[in-house]
Specification:
Strand order of the largest sheet: 1-2-3-4-9-8-7-6
Helix content: 10-25%
CATH class of the largest domain: Alpha Beta
Strand content: 25-35%
Shape: flat
Number of strands: 43
CATH architecture of the largest domain: Alpha-Beta Complex
Mean pLDDT: 87
Structural class: alpha+beta
CATH superfamily of the largest domain: DNA primase, PRIM domain
Length: 844
């Protein structure tokens, strides 16, 4: 086969000295009719960051420089500058282009795969409109390149790279940003084809189908109206489904109810089959007045508050006090109608039939549960913002089955379920009112402890609960004996528990499950009389579809994502969320099992900031440490997971500050930190020199140290320790080291903070080494204009740093995607003691 003429690569070769650069020399590749055409996107940090988009055609790689990179959002028009063709061999190039060479900088392979042109690609290039499919590890679906300049108008033609509208992979930028979600090399971190990981367009379920024009009842079966009906139940899900068409409804904060209409009479049944007709007589009469004929109706009863939001406590009060006139019945399914069994009919058609049945008949008390025309993520976010319980997803083609099914899914704003009451305590100074409820659930024939709840009821309700529980009181707990082994219930006993027969069921909202099977941040929502105690088990979320690496989902709904938190740059809350999600793998080792203080900025970083050291708001994944770790104080906080990191950010946390010790050895620090804080008039060069001097002193004392930027004005020098000495000893060492620096170089350093003594000098802050003192964690953003980041670096990098805020949340993750070895890799393996260093320092 004849080689292509080499002229197309002449410009490529002319710009490069192949004795200096490791880039491949340009030679056209042989064409092959069997081989699929390749594409590659190289992330190139040269004078500025950009993305090189390359498509193989006729033995070369057609190339465009895309400054901001591709987007799955069809509304984003990414500028693409047509540059010289590159050789096909360039598809494997990763590495550094040396200073002084064309394109000097670092290159990684951000994505690669194959592409398929739509129509004749050569004709498309000639006309300035090229449409194609991509099959990559990050990009997929239908794309388009459109020339927007006249040929020859500029030195390099200007094009736009667009995601085609209507494509299955198209997604709004507010929902997903592939650039920030997947910033790394696919050579270093291969992902596999995205079409295989996330078929049909990724983790978001497809929007709900358009309402059917009329119900398709071809699968209806003639049958007599049954006397009883088992309802279909939803399965708790951790994330939206990835395939199929789903209808989305609000998850009502109420009681499930089924209505049987026959011979002009209506009877009402709970999900357990209990007849509540007499209990809800006004509602039964309201349904009878609609004259619906023979049918079974499925729905949920609620009581709405002044904002039109379901209120579970109001519903409970309405039922218990026979004030049922405020109850609203939302209908969402029609399993039977007339002489037909509709359970095999697809859900979308059953709902269409229900709409027809209710047409012109709905009232303020009898309503149709509308579907919500949006994506599950958007609806869940809106529902949580409105204070709703969550959303229900139902597969549009699913039949009605009388059991729990994965074709009906529930996504919750917070964890919530029923528990059996196994005991209680009296309220302090009010012995006829409940102080706390001891909770349990059934598991494999045992009654297990779930912890306790001590809030959520008013005084009158607390007295009523006390009266109900006293009537059930017994001498011995009904819990499984294993629940009293050390480390479980026995640790939490206060000595005044009163045990009851396990018959009362309550609903409780809570933040999370602890590793030992108890609930945290619990709040009582009401008594459930529609569910028997023996049916109460621990509710487990169905596993979420496996997400793409580095694009993990936490289930944390982000409210007000576009709120600006840094007016100086326009950075938004969602930018901070995406930053912390992207650096979680690096940051979490610096947080796990270490007490953390949070700096929150509810009005943005230009507003009032405040520190939080203890639980104040529900943040799933932010855990309470054992209160015994710091006697006399509320439990300290720790963050061990991505969920905790993101839920804290959702609650407007900007900075994460950690102790110098872990929970395991709270009084024995495993590090000592020297915070180099420049006074007025100190130059950055002087601060760099100070860090080197501190490094030299520590080396002379036999100690290895590591460096990180503070994210603000200064630098942090960190010395890992084997946790043996107590806080006072470690603080005394750090003070002695700082005083030594101040005595040796008084023109550079000062050992006391504050006042005029710091002008032109550097205070090395040793006070951060006291018990309970904290320092901004590695990778933490800072609540300062520009939002700098505390970044671990190698000592060899110190000379190249421009400031303590050299990286920001806009640039830090991109830097990490280009960095090679972790400069702190040896930090975690270093074992060293201060004993010898203290002796040496004492001799000076």
């Amino acid at each position: 086969m004849k080689l292509k003429d080499e002229a197309p690569l002449a410009r490529y070769n002319a710009k490069r000295d192949f004795n200096a650069t490791s880039e491949p020399e340009g030679r056209p590749a042989r064409k092959s009719r069997q081989k699929a055409l390749g594409f590659v996107i190289q992330k190139h940090w040269a004078s500025r960051l950009h993305y090189d988009f390359r498509l193989e055609l006729d033995g070369v790689m057609l190339s465009w420089a895309v400054p901001k990179g591709p987007s799955f959002d069809p509304a984003v028009k990414a500028m693409a500058i047509h540059v010289e063709d590159h050789p096909v061999s360039y598809n494997t190039f990763e590495g550094s282009i040396p200073k002084g060479s064309y394109g000097a900088g670092t290159v990684i392979i951000w994505d690669r795969g194959t592409w398929e042109p739509v129509g004749d690609p050569r004709e498309g290039l000639e006309k300035g409109k090229l449409i194609f499919h991509l099959h990559g590890q990050k990009l997929a679906g239908l794309w388009e390149l459109v020339r927007i300049s006249k040929p020859g108008q500029f030195k390099q033609d200007h094009w736009l790279l667009l995601k085609k509208r209507g494509d299955a992979w198209a997604r709004p930028g507010t929902e997903y940003d592939v650039i920030t979600a997947l910033p790394d090399s696919v050579v270093e971190k291969p992902l596999g084809l995205v079409e295989e990981r996330e078929p049909r367009g990724g983790p978001a379920a497809t929007p709900a189908p358009a309402p059917v024009a009329g119900p398709d009842l071809s699968k209806a079966v003639k049958a007599a109206l049954p006397d009883a009906l088992q309802p279909q139940l939803a399965t708790l899900a951790a994330a939206p489904p990835t395939q199929g068409e789903w209808l989305i409804e609000n998850k009502f904060d109420g009681y499930r109810l089924l209505a049987r209409s026959s011979a002009g009479k209506v009877r009402l049944f709970t999900r357990q089959g209990n007849d509540w007709t007499a209990r809800l007589k006004p509602l039964a009469e309201a349904l009878q007045a609609l004259d619906l004929g023979p049918c079974w109706l499925d729905g949920e009863i609620v009581v709405l508050n002044e904002q039109g939001v379901p209120d579970f406590n109001r519903l409970q009060n309405a039922i218990d006090n026979a004030r049922t006139q405020d109850i609203v019945f939302f209908l969402f399914d029609l399993p039977f109608v007339g002489r037909y069994d509709l359970r095999a009919v697809p859900l979308a058609s059953r709902r269409a039939a229900l709409q027809q049945l209710l047409e012109g008949r709905t009232t303020e008390r009898i309503r149709f549960s509308e579907t919500l025309p949006s994506t599950p993520t958007e609806v869940l976010t809106a529902a949580c913002r409105l204070g709703l319980e969550g959303v229900i997803l139902k597969r549009a083609d699913s039949p009605y089955v009388g059991r729990r099914s994965d074709t009906w899914l529930k996504l919750k704003c917070q964890r919530r379920q029923e528990f059996v009451v196994v005991g209680f305590t009296d309220r302090t100074n009010s012995p006829k009112e409940v102080g706390a409820l001891m909770l349990g659930y059934h598991e494999e024939g045992r009654l297990r402890s779930a912890g306790s709840v001590g809030t959520g009821w008013a005084t009158a309700q607390g007295r009523e609960l006390h009266r109900m529980l006293v009537a059930l009181e017994t001498d011995k707990p009904a819990l499984d004996p294993a629940e009293f082994t050390p480390g479980r219930w026995s640790k939490r006993r206060s000595g005044n528990e009163r045990w009851v027969k396990p018959e009362l069921v309550v609903e409780v909202a809570f933040g999370e499950w602890t590793p030992d099977g108890h609930i945290r941040h619990a709040s009582f929502r009401g008594v459930r009389t529609d569910k028997p105690a023996r049916s109460i088990t621990r509710e487990q979320a169905a596993p979420a579809p496996a997400p793409a690496p580095a694009a993990r989902k936490t289930g944390v709904a982000i409210t007000h994502p576009d709120r600006v938190i840094d007016p100086s740059t326009g950075l938004r809350k969602i930018d901070l969320v995406r930053y912390y999600e992207s650096v979680a793998d690096w940051m979490l080792p610096h947080l796990r099992q270490r007490p953390v203080s949070l700096v929150r900025a509810p009005q943005g970083i230009s507003g009032e900031l405040f520190f939080q050291k203890h639980s104040e708001a529900s943040m799933p994944g932010v855990i309470d440490l054992d209160a015994a770790l710091w006697p006399g104080h509320a439990p300290l906080l720790a963050i061990n997971s991505l969920e905790g990191l993101i839920s804290a950010t959702q609650m407007n946390v900007v900075e994460f500050h950690t102790w110098n010790s872990t929970a395991k050895k709270i009084n024995q620090p495993d590090r000592v930190i020297f915070d180099l804080d420049p006074g007025e008039g100190v130059t950055w060069a002087q601060l760099q020199e100070a860090a080197l001097l501190m490094h030299t002193l520590l080396e002379e004392l036999g100690l290895q140290s590591w460096l990180k930027t503070s994210g603000g004005k200064g630098l942090h020098v960190v010395v890992p320790l084997t946790p043996r000495l107590d806080d006072d000893a470690v603080k005394a060492f750090s003070k002695a080291a700082v005083e030594h620096m101040a005595r040796t170089l008084p023109q550079r350093f000062v050992a006391k903070s504050g006042g005029s003594r710091r002008v032109g000098k550097i205070f090395i802050d040793y006070l951060r080494n006291g018990h309970g003192q904290t320092t901004a964690a590695a990778f933490s953003a800072r609540a300062r204009p520009g939002m700098g980041v505390s970044m671990p670096v190698a000592w060899a990098q110190l000379a190249s740093l421009k400031s303590g805020a050299h990286w920001t949340i806009q640039t830090a993750r991109e830097y990490l995607s280009f960095s090679g070895e972790d400069p702190w890799a040896a930090y975690w393996k270093t074992r060293q003691s201060l004993t010898a260093a203290i002796r040496r320092l004492g001799r000076d």
